[in-house]
Design a protein that fits this description.
With 950 residues, the chain is an alpha/beta fold. α8 runs parallel beside α9, α10 crosses α14 and α27 packs across α28.
Length: 950
Amino acid sequence: MTTASDPSYPAHWEADVVLRDGGTARIRPITTEDAARLVSFYEQVSDESKYYRFFAPYPRLSDRDVHRFTHHDYVDRVGLAATVGEEFIGTVRYDRIGPDGRPASLPADEAEVAFLVQDAHQGRGVASALLEHIGAVARERGIRRFAAEVLPANTKMIKVFTDAGYQQKRSFEDGSVHLTLDLEPTEESLAVQRAREQRAEARSVQRLLTPRSVAVIGVSRSGGGMGAAALRNLRDSGFHGHLYAVNEAVTTDLLEGVRAYRALAQVDAPVDLAVIAVPAERVPEAVAACGEHGVQGLVVLSAGYGESGPAGLDRQRELVRQVRSYGMRLIGPNAFGVINTAPDVGLNASLAPAPAPLRGRIGLFTQSGAIGISLLSALLRRGEGLSSFVSAGNRADVSGNDILQFWYDDEATDVALMYLETLGNPRKFTRLARRTAAVKPVVVAKGGRHTPAGHVVPGTRLAETTVSALLRQAGVIRVDTVTELVDVGLLLASQPLPGGPRVAILGNSESLGVLTYDACLTQGLRPGTPLDLTTAAGPAEFRAALAAALASDTNDAVIVTAIPSVSERPLVDDLAGALREAVAEHPGKPVAVVHVELADLADALSPAGGFAATPPGDEAGNRAGDPRSEAAPRPRAAAAVRLPAYPAAERAVRAVAEAVRYGQWRQANAHAGQVPAYEDIDEAGAAAQLAGLLADVGPGGDPGARAGTGTGPGAGTGTDPGVLTLGEVDAAELLARYGIRVLPTLPAPTADAAVRAAETLGYPVALKTTAPHLRHRADLGGVRLDLTTEAELRRSYDELTDLLGTPAELLPVVQAMVPRGVDTVVRSVIDPAAGAVLSFGLAGVASELLGDTAHRLVPATDRDVAGLIRSIRTAPLLFGWRGSEPVDTPALEELLLRLSRLVDDHPEVVGVTLEPVVVATEGLSVLSATVRIAHPPARTDLGPRILPSY
């Protein structure tokens, strides 16, 4: 017998998932304790569905059936259930079969699979989610193919199989459709899985942001507190749906002018969204009431959870479990709220102080309520509006990843702004951000460098510089401050993307023009000589100069600088209109305005009332986030032109520079790079070798801890029992299977052994120490090169042992000399959240001291590795610095691609260091390699879609 508390119960198969309609369900193994649930589930299934499952009328399950469907060994026979609360809504099972179709055990690698979904839940994507999870379970248990028999009339189930993206065979036998699915993931199956994930998660956020009815639970009768504040904002925002107030002690029909009830159950109508503002100890009761009433989503404003310490963290975990048990999604706890300015919604379920945000084209996500207030106020002051706003607090459920899924195809959002304290799952975040950045800008300001209390998701051990590099690789615009977040967002929301880095500067102050020029150079732009219009310039002169700059083919962007002038008519009165007219006549290039002591100019340049009825830039067809931006610009009315204004040159230039870099990324990524398929790679041989090496190694801790263990060239397990550091022979053999040759090294415990090694390898040779404290430290004198004779070798051996220690301490080795070149370091490590990361830098103390290392996520493409080796500051040394010969960078790129393939194909490889890699003018040589392996984690970003667990 197997129960959920049995040690053999595979708890890692449990997962929460988002279904097609945005609701949630839990998938878990079926146990012997589920007999009553299975019978109840089957009774609710229609006769037609039962017929499709069993190919005959089957009104009820026999005791034998119930026993069979609830008793599993979780190897050859597995059953999974999708549940909402304690009720089954769908089941799937597989039975391993042999070539004759009869029950079998390993090494048989085929299984028969069958589904049954409750009729009330069909069409929600339950079967598709179950197929993803049962497929992952089957692969874990050594099953490579599923076989299924389906009646031809059961078109829904046939579609589940055929739409999964797996390679399959289909035939018609004995009145039924016989399907065989190859469970090896393919590009198509992964694309199908991720498309379903995007639709489901986007839909779940859409349900939260577009409710037809909202109830606020915890509205005080005195008008104070969070509940009353949220209710007033909902009422005053012009919410288009039904609004209800809930307070168990209410004695009147109205609270804050809204119909009031003592309990949610008294509301005799559906409620889509509930805003909970009661003390933390009373939240479970409110959640239960919402679940029983059929509420789809919650915004929990209440504090006292993960941010308050261990007890609050336990309370937060229980809250998530309770919310998901009812199929709901949660924003919070400790949330600031949500806003949707769509004209047909008008939702402001937040604590944002008046005045309310304006309607615009920027989407805003924050983890911090305080930062949310700051950003909302800053955008309002500068006349910019929002499409949607989510401040998720502890983001115990809905996170920035979910919001990105929603913004990806949200037509109301042109620019995504995010303030994040942690990335949570950087691997998924960068994947989603890359896809979103391909169609609209994603700007991120990242706050905390460490995981704050309450943010109970896996943190990352990556350095901040590495995180920044990975975000840049994904097309994310990384800024350092909240002010920069607003500055960059304003420009991207109102201006087209620049076609390049050439910037024209014009204005009525020579000094301000020079400051702008210097700032452009600092940001890597190519500014032209500033045009000084003198302080006597009026609106007409500004208009003419701006029109000329925009019309010129030598400029990609224009920065206008303005200071107050001494004249009978204040400059600001007509300058805004003049600038707008010039841009309207010559659209297609971004313009930023720098104003000094001209605050009224910024107000005049912002859209009247904070929102242009026509989406910004739409008349020109070249909004920054619009894939049509490459189309020829069309003239537009001057009144519709929006120009971002900045009180300092440096801020305007930084915004323009980020737009330039983003535009360049868009152009470079218009065509995705390729992962080459090398014919000489022995993937099967590597898998077999790894399986053999790990046969006697127990499961270890998290992969990030594994990647950092193990030292020295010999085999060992380091400090983590789950990791194995390969010996030189095994490491060289594994790398050779992927076309990476490590130069042989022979031990030299004595001078005579060193001579014999040199005779084996052939002179000239190198003699070096491999002791941990001297390894890769030529600067400490532990390396002797170009030894051409036995006498030189013996003399060098004596010098090393006299200077640095005994042979037992130094562990000297002999290696054949290789052509001189540039010494580099190539690494791949596993981060617990980001996954496999490929790193490159030059060898040596200087590079380590400066942190001159570049990073890319695995799998890396040819475009990725080409950019990787060129992105370090010391890259010129590879390309002929000061007259030296350029080295063989194509060979270096191939090495990086092969290593990327190795760690991507085999998650057992948790750490590889190739140091040094000597890159010569022709070819390269890997002089040393360290490889660490471990059993792979149970779930990865490539596995079935799941919600984070707590």
